Known about the structure:
The chain has 262 residues and is of the alpha/beta class. Helices cover 43% and strands 16% of the residues. The longest helix is centred in the last third of the chain and has 20 residues, at 242-261. The radius of gyration is 20 Å and the shape is globular. The N and C termini lie far apart (41 Å).
Amino acid sequence: MLPPLPDDDFGRVLCVVAHPDDVEYGTSSAVAAWTSRGVDVGYLLLTRGEAGMDGSPPERTAELRVHEQVAGSNAVGVSRVDFLDHPDGVLVYSLDMRRDISRAIRRHRPDAIVVGSWDVEFVAGLNQADHRVAGLAAVDAIRDAGNRWVFRELLEEGLEPWSPRWLLVSGDPAPTHGVDVTGDPLERGIASLEAHREYLAGIPGHPPARPMITGITALQGTRMGVPHAVLFRAFDFHAPPPIAVEAMKLAERGRSDAALDG
């Protein structure tokens, strides 16, 4: 059984994703659980999703998807949603992207950053290119945000360095922790995906939000022993690296064995 995420350790969260609707495929139920306890959650979207609807011109699509994202965010208690203007569908990992994310981290000063998997293959199969770029850029931007000598122009903007404690990766095939979303958080998470109704209506064969999110969270709930859960791979930057912990254990065993031999 996976343990619950020690989310009493944080009061502010920033979710960094590529597109409108990326948070809503399960993760938003965890967001609802956090905001219900008073956690301040903000969203940073690298694009406006303008390339996401084949039958709609990009300008109209961007306007629609921004509107639906704000509605979906409100459903789970998120009132701050920031959109950047990186190009949808062709995101390229860059220093500019890292700077933009670092700026948002310094402004929001979160205790935890939520990102999607940057692996080519993740829990839902082959990962989309923009998702991979967004996840990796966000991981690197976390360190950038804490280093005053990287992107010095941010200091000129009055943004002092900030280092979050937690990195939470959704969609990782090796989760370490989970959030129980049974009950109201699940319902609000479903409502957040349903807010993207026009976008989802344009995807042939897309399943309805309720059975889809209910099924995903029920499957993940089996890993925690609860009816519904959202799972993350959690990295605690305040903890020593796992290899250091194992090395110290091995050294301690060596000292104990030497004492017994002596």
